[in-house]
Design brief:
By secondary structure, the protein is of the alpha/beta class. The protein folds into two domains: 150 residues, NAD(P)-binding Rossmann-like Domain (Rossmann fold, 3-Layer(aba) Sandwich), CATH 3.40.50; 104 residues, Dihydrodipicolinate Reductase, domain 2, CATH 3.30.360. Helix content is 33%, strand content 24%. It binds NADPH dihydro-nicotinamide-adenine-dinucleotide phosphate and ligand LZUJQKHR.
């Protein structure tokens, strides 16, 4: 069996370490590259050891050299150009999981997808993607019923972007159906009576929370809430490995986790 050759970007980070650890246990996957920021203090160290397991023989490096099939990126917006360049120059499929990118970077991913297959999703977890489908069902059923939509997300204190990419995707999917035109981030002072045509986002940052989203559909007299909660990061890492297996078989184009999960 030919193994799928995987490069992990953000390899020393919280997600990168879990992706490396879980991929190393899979017989059909081989880690062949581990990328980190050019100034990272652990450059040169073995990626397996950095992830807390036995050595893999793959040192952390700032640039990828060699042959590979797919790059899985859980890094940082500052590494975006380097990720795109690496995939384009080496013809690597891309699983792009980093959040907080700019609209210009979004467009760059669309352009990259003309050359290589790309999966872009702010959340690789099965439960989150099922929750997105449930929210779309709720939005369809409630679109003419005067429902207020608010999204609360909770994450660990180290998270840099807010609201989460996942919260924004929940909001976009819902507003495409219900038609809200304002995306309001928090409230303070005297914003006045809540207008119907907005979605509210509230980002909570606490301790080591690996990620939690609650989507509220508020009616007069009753409330529907859909909550999805990670208890650790492995659902994201497993989703990224499933995405890698899927994307290497696709022609160039932009795909989402729905394509991977058949939702
Ligand atoms: N789609 C999904 O399912 C999920 C997405 N995420 C997203 O993934 C990203 C990473 O999350 P997390 O692992 O918690 O973050 P971490 O900060 O723990 O890890 C990010 C890693 O990327 C490194 N890095 C920074 N700049 C570069 C660069 N230029 N090139 C390569 N690596 C770089 C960081 O190094 P340094 O420490 O030196 O900065 C760090 O080691 C975030 O955007 C997060 O929102 C997270 C979980 C799930
Ligand atoms: O930074 C995180 O941790 C996470 N980020 C993603 C996001 O911004 O949606 C996905 C997940 O919630 C964990």
């Amino acid at each position: 069996m030919e193994k799928i050759r995987v490069v992990v970007s953000g390899a020393a980070g919280r997600m990168g370490q879990r992706v490396i650890t879980l991929a190393a246990e899979e017989p059909d996957l081989a880690i062949v590259g581990a990328l980190e920021a050019p100034n990272h203090p652990k450059l040169g160290q073995d990626a397996g050891v950095v992830a807390g397991r036995e050595p893999l023989g793959v040192p952390l490096s700032a640039e990828f050299q060699g042959k590979a099939d797919v790059l899985i990126d859980f890094s940082h917006v500052s590494g975006f150009d380097s990720v795109v360049r690496t995939c384009r120059n080496n013809r690597l499929a891309l699983v792009f999981a980093t959040t907080g990118i700019t609209p210009e970077q979004e467009r760059a991913l669309v352009e990259l997808a003309e050359f290589v297959p790309v999966i872009r999703s702010p959340n690789m977890s099965l439960a989150v993607n099922v929750a997105m489908k449930l929210c779309q069902m709720a939005a369809e059923a409630l679109k003419d019923k005067d429902a207020d939509v608010e999204i609360i997300e909770r994450h660990h204190r180290f998270k840099e972007d807010a609201p989460s990419g996942t919260a924004l995707q929940f909001g976009n999917l819902i507003s495409q159906i219900m038609g809200q035109i304002v995306h309001r981030h928090g409230r303070q002072g005297r914003p006045g009576r809540r207008p119907h045509e907005e979605i509210g986002y509230h980002a909570v940052r606490v301790g080591d929370n690996p990620g939690e989203h609650t989507i509220i559909f508020g009616l007069l007299g009753e409330t529907l809430e859909i909550t999805v909660r990670a208890t650790n990061r492995d659902a994201y890492a497993k989703g990224a490995l499933a995405a890698a297996r899927f994307v290497v078989k696709q022609p160039p184009g932009l795909y989402g986790m729905r394509d991977v999960l058949g939702l």
